[in-house]
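re the bet — no i am not wrong, look at it urself. input seq straight from the record:
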Amino acid sequence: MRISVALIVALTVLPGCGSVPPQTASHEFLDEQTGTTLSVVAKPLVFARERTDVAAHARDYATLVAIEVDNSGKYRAYLLLYRWSTVDPRMSPAPDPHAGELRILAEGRVIDLMPLDLMPVSLSQRRELHVPDHGDVIAHAYPVDASTLRFIASSRELSVQMPQEPLETPFKMWGDGRLALSKFVEGAAAP
């Protein structure tokens, strides 16, 4: 009798253990320092450009992360840019951390974004914001609207450029987070 009760309990619990939760549009957390709630896209967009001019298998990267900040019911959307590289800095110096113009090329359209002068405290580099696990990361924040994020998410052809950098070669898609971005925009409250 005891074995059959244990078996019934095990059979009812096991299906829940094997199920995979659906991919969420974002994850939320409270920034205790500012009192704001941040919604972060589940998977960032990662772009890369080959740097075979300086070393084999070396790349420059640009990671874009969509964020929505809820400050007592006032919503703002941002794109965070993390610019980093596997190139030895002796071979190619890092970009100027104060120059952060971002050009997104999507479906033949050019979207030029200028960074905020100061990074908002709630958007400082932290693990929850998909900061690359690399020592020298330059970060910038760009205010955006939902229609721009929606357009980026639906674009089949997508690349980015850093106009302030001497190398004009665009960064091409390396890690595709467009589906996650699309789901993020669907759930966002910012207009």
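see?? The chain has a mean pLDDT of 85. told u. also The longest helix spans residues 2-18. so pay up
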